[in-house]
């Protein structure tokens, strides 16, 4: 049976609602109202399916849900948020795992988001990171690994030793919650290498171990850092409970000039207008 286009049905109902309520709301009010109407539609009884859209998917087995998703993709019918949310609520059913090997980038990104941060998907995730997947796919994978970084820690450390996606692995390790000397020393070693200083400082800030403060304070005092590096180092220091208040002169620094240029075009929302 052809999958139901719930988004198309909603658009039809929305068009009718817009016509009946023309002029009652501003454009901004409509922007805020439409997502609420969509959620309400999810709980609206539809005679043709003898259920609400949410109930329709809730009644399906894990396999039926994934088959429905595949049918949507095959028929080029929009995948409703109700179908996605129901699959996500099943906490990565095993039927979703084979989809993490598909070649279609758009579908693969969707599959990663639906599989979520459940460790059962991690073997597939790390295979994607080791392969030639698009950067957008790898970023989506890393977002899921960061959400459950402690479960990904062992594989991330192994990938680091192999030299696979080193920066992404450091990012994952920086989100671990359990304190681990190997992780801390790995992040500190990466920072001391001096490569991509702002990013490496942000990893230490995310990890949250105040033992990194002396090294950060020593580095921020260096005269060779640029304004961008200074800002990220200062943020990391403050995030770890420290402070750095020395005046620094970044005149002629291109990053500082760009910062000043941006500030000129930023409205001051806190400034009260004079009567």
Describe this structure in words.
α8 (135-147) packs across α9 and α9 runs antiparallel to α10. The protein contains 15 helices and no strands. The chain is an all-alpha fold. It has helices at 6-20, 27-41, 53-58, 62-75, 81-89, 105-115, 122-130, 135-147, 149-162, 166-173, 181-192, 197-207, 213-220, 227-239, 254-264. The longest helix is centred in the first third of the chain and has 15 residues, at 6-20. The model has no long low-confidence stretch (mean pLDDT 93). Helix content is 61%, strand content 0%.
Give the strand content.
Answer: under 5%
Low-pLDDT segments, ≥5 res: none
Overall residue-averaged pLDDT value: 93
User: What percent of the residues sit in helical stretches (DSSP H or I)?
Assistant: 55-70%
Contiguous helical run count: 15
Largest sheet: none
Taken in chain order, the helices and strands follow as HHHHHHHHHHHHHHH
Briefly note the structural class of the backbone. mainly alpha
E-strand count: 0
Key traits:
about 280 residues; mainly alpha
Tell me the layout of helices and strands.
Elements: H1 6-20, H2 27-41, H3 53-58, H4 62-75, H5 81-89, H6 105-115, H7 122-130, H8 135-147, H9 149-162, H10 166-173, H11 181-192, H12 197-207, H13 213-220, H14 227-239, H15 254-264
Brief summary:
The chain has helices at 6-20, 27-41, 53-58, 62-75, 81-89, 105-115, 122-130, 135-147, 149-162, 166-173, 181-192, 197-207, 213-220, 227-239, 254-264. The chain is an all-alpha fold.
């Amino acid at each position: 049976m052809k999958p139901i286009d719930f988004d198309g049905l909603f658009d039809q109902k929305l068009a009718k609602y817009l016509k009946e309520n023309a002029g009652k709301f501003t454009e901004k009010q409509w922007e805020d109202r439409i997502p609420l109407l969509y959620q309400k539609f999810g709980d609206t009884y539809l005679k043709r399916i003898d259920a609400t859209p949410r109930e329709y998917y809730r009644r399906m087995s894990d396999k039926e849900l994934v088959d429905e998703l595949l049918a949507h993709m095959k028929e080029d019918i929009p995948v409703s948020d109700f179908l996605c949310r129901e699959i996500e609520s099943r906490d990565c059913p095993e039927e979703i795992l084979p989809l993490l090997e598909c070649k279609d980038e758009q579908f693969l990104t969707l599959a990663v988001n639906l599989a979520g941060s459940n460790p059962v998907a991690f073997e597939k995730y790390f295979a994607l990171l080791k392969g030639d997947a698009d950067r957008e796919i790898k970023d989506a994978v890393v977002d899921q690994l960061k959400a459950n970084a402690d479960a990904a820690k062992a594989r991330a450390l192994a990938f680091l030793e192999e030299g696979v996606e080193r920066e992404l692995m450091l990012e994952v390790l920086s989100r671990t919650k359990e304190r681990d000397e190997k992780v801390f020393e790995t992040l500190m070693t990466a920072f001391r290498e001096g490569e991509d200083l702002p990013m490496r400082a942000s990893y230490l800030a995310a990890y949250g171990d105040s033992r990194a403060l002396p090294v950060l304070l020593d580095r921020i005092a260096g005269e060779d850092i640029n304004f961008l590096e200074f800002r990220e180092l200062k943020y990391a220091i403050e995030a770890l409970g420290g402070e750095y208040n020395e005046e620094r002169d970044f005149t002629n620094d291109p990053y500082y000039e760009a910062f000043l240029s941006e500030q000129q075009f930023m409205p001051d929302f806190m400034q009260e207008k004079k009567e």
